[in-house]
């Protein structure tokens, strides 16, 4: 069995909709990762689950007034949290016969909900379950089978694994079948109890034996006895003794500490030890209830390599009967999580990236996109999961220049939560599809794509004419860049096959037709998105050419000279910035674009007060 759906109504930041719950979160078997910036709702979702199901540590969750959603009309008087479970084995279903039902596929489904109401200064709540909307109360045994393993975000692993009355390690041990004893007699016969009783006897003997070899244990007790009996009357004489306090099995477990072979283990290592110990609860073969672990902020105290290794463990070792829900705002984890395990939290909504229970994808990500993104979605690109806005660029030059331009016009990207994602090529469509949904929920993220138009200027086409397919048929000029398309066009005009002479350098008189053809192809291949938050911005040819045409042409020229001085690369740099094509020629050679962009970015930021007005007035960079 696993938690398939969580519905929240009027709990904390989530209110209600016309159709019911303020939010519905769909989970899957295995690994689920809630990812998002601070205040995105991750902890509210986790707490909602904990309030309904409780935890294996039996900690008390106190419902308070602030748990009730506050809207424009004031604080709500009630809230409801519902958990829906599926994937039962017959044995698991047998534990919930009184409450379990069936879905439309005749498969087991269990609905459990917590309803809380404010009555004056009191808060009344109950947990019920059932196939209808009324249900009945869950008994203690059934509730225990639904308890989750929970690791809080600000965890002190050393204290949790140390000896003491509240020892978490002792609780973990007691949950194991090795320490479950039906009777007091069974506890006394337990091997660990026998070991401690033997030790207790030896300790008592040490303090009672007159043997000199016992190194004075009895002398210590006798000294205490002599002083003690001076304080009391003759009829109250007592005999002190020394032994191990509590030899019952539970008391023994509370005195155990789980450590590692290290003089002073780090916080990170102790957290890994804590996680490993808690995961024992998922591995219990004798447990026929829910096997769900919730880990808030997995990255807490963990080095990036430990984060990745821990996540890899979950992706590779989860059984069908096990489920883990992790929250994170780590870009390291965001880049390492399989896409189908991600649930993005944004502005009081959630956006699963995988498939629903029917196998239908939530997004427009294609099958080959998944493999591509999992290979190339590094920590830098994973910023797109956290940003309020995303600018996707094709290269380093845009990656360096756009932040400088934004700062110069008084809109620094970092202050507005905008991230730049450099995809390092033309694969931007794969990243855009992350934000396109099949479930009619538009992600509240503005996405801009800045790419090259790749339509060269007339001077370049004259200087370096490309090879095209061209033939004059009557008064028509048939011109194409593709042999197949050229062949199709010929078949409409003539039966003559393609000739060798049809493939030729572009003639000057056909440049206008060629440019129109490129623009037509560009329009035909234009990316059309169903999400109105996604916009594509293309320059005419390249970023550098548009900069040469803009009011930044003089700054660009100076940056080109600086880049050449630094790298020794680049030739034919013009003396002035009057001709955009002449400024473009060095970039067509080996002048490093990224170095030029770096210098230009520094100039723009350094002169931002001077450049702000002219940058705001011009619209020459992108259209």
Topology, element by element:
Blueprint: E1 2-9, E2 16-17, E3 20-21, E4 23-26, E5 30-35, H1 42-53, E6 70-71, E7 74-75, E8 78-86, H2 90-94, E9 101-102, E10 108-119, E11 122-129, E12 136-137, H3 140-144, E13 149-151, H4 157-160, H5 168-174, H6 184-189, H7 191-208, H8 217-230, H9 249-254, H10 267-278, E14 292-296, H11 304-317, E15 323-328, H12 331-336, E16 342-346, E17 349-352, H13 367-376, E18 389-393, H14 396-408, E19 418-422, H15 428-432, E20 446-451, H16 458-463, E21 467-473, E22 476-480, H17 483-493, E23 503-505, H18 511-524, E24 534-538, H19 543-549, H20 553-567, H21 580-588, H22 593-606, H23 608-617
Parallel strand pairs: 5-15, 5-16, 13-14, 14-15, 18-19, 18-20, 20-24
Antiparallel strand pairs: 1-4, 1-8, 2-3, 6-7, 8-10, 9-10, 10-11, 11-12, 16-17, 21-22, 21-23
Helix pairs in contact: 14-22, 19-20, 19-21, 20-22
Summarize this structure briefly:
The chain is an alpha/beta fold. It contains 23 helices and 24 strands.
Describe the protein.
The strands form 6 sheets. Strands 1, 4, 8, 9, 10, 11 and 12 form a 7-stranded antiparallel β-sheet that branches. The chain starts with a strand and ends in a 6-residue tail after the last helix. The model has no long low-confidence stretch (mean pLDDT 89). It is elongated and about 130 Å long. Helix content is 36%, strand content 19%. The longest helix is centred in the N-terminal third of the chain and has 18 residues. The protein is α/β, with parallel strands linked by helices. A hairpin with a 2-residue loop joins strand 2 and strand 3. It folds into 4 domains: 241 residues, Rossmann fold (3-Layer(aba) Sandwich); 80 residues, no CATH class; 160 residues, no CATH class; 67 residues, no CATH class.
């Amino acid at each position: 069995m696993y938690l398939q759906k969580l519905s929240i109504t009027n709990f904390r930041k989530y209110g209600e909709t016309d159709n019911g719950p303020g939010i519905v979160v769909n989970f899957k078997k295995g690994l689920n990762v809630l990812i998002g910036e601070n205040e995105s709702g991750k902890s509210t979702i986790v707490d909602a689950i904990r309030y309904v199901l409780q935890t294996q540590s039996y900690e008390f969750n106190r419902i308070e007034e602030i748990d009730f959603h506050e809207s424009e009309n004031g604080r709500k008087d009630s809230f409801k949290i519902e958990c829906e479970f599926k994937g039962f084995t017959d044995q698991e279903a047998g534990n919930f016969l009184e409450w379990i039902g069936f879905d439309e596929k005749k498969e087991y489904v269990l609905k459990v909900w917590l309803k809380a109401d404010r009555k004056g200064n009191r808060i009344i709540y109950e947990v019920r379950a059932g196939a209808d909307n009324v249900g009945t109360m869950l008994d203690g045994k059934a509730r225990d089978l639904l308890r989750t393993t929970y690791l809080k975000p600000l965890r002190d692993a050393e204290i949790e694994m140390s000896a003491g009355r509240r020892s978490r390690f002792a609780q973990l041990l007691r949950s194991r079948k090795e320490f479950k004893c039906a009777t007091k007699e069974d506890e006394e016969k337990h091997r660990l109890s026998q070991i401690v009783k033997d030790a207790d006897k030896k300790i008592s003997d040490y303090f009672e034996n007159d043997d000199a070899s016992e190194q004075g244990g009895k002398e210590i007790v006798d000294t205490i006895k002599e002083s003690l009996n001076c304080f009391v009357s003759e009829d109250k004489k007592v005999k002190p003794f020394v032994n191990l306090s509590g030899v019952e099995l539970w008391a023994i477990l509370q005195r155990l500490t789980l450590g590692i072979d290290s003089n002073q283990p780090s916080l990170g290592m102790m957290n890994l030890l804590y996680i490993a110990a808690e995961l024992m609860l998922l591995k219990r073969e004798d447990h026929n209830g829910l096997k769900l672990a919730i880990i808030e902020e997995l990255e807490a105290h963990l080095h990036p390599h430990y984060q990745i290794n821990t996540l890899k463990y979950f992706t590779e070792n989860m059984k069908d009967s096990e489920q883990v829900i992790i929250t994170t705002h780590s870009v390291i984890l965001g880049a390492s999580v399989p896409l189908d395990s991600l649930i993005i939290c944004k502005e009081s909504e959630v956006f699963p990236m995988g498939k629903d229970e029917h196998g239908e994808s939530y997004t427009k990500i294609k099958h080959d996109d998944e493999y591509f993104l999992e290979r190339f979605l590094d920590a830098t690109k994973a910023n797109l999961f956290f940003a309020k806005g995303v600018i996707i660029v094709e290269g380093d030059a845009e990656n360096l220049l756009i932040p400088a331009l934004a700062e110069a016009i008084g809109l620094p990207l970092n202050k507005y939560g905008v991230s730049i994602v450099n995809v390092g090529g033309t694969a931007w469509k794969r990243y855009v599809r992350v934000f396109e949904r099949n479930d009619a929920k538009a992600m509240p993220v503005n996405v801009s794509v800045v790419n090259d138009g790749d339509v060269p200027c007339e001077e370049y086409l004259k200087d370096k004419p490309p090879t095209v397919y061209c033939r004059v048929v009557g008064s028509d000029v048939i011109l194409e860049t593709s042999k197949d398309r050229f062949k199709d066009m010929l078949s409409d005009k003539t039966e003559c096959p393609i000739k060798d002479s049809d493939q030729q350098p572009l003639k000057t008189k056909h440049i206008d037709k060629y440019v129109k053809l490129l623009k037509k192809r560009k329009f035909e291949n234009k990316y059309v998105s169903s999400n109105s938050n996604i916009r594509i911005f293309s320059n005419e040819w390249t970023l550098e050419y548009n900069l040469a045409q803009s009011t930044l042409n003089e700054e660009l020229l100076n940056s080109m000279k600086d880049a050449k001085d630094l790298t020794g690369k680049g030739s034919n740099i013009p003396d002035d910035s009057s001709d955009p094509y002449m400024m473009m020629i060095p970039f067509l050679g080996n002048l490093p674009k990224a170095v030029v962009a770096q210098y230009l970015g520094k100039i723009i930021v350094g002169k931002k007060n001077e450049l702000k007005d002219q940058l705001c007035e011009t619209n020459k960079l992108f259209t």
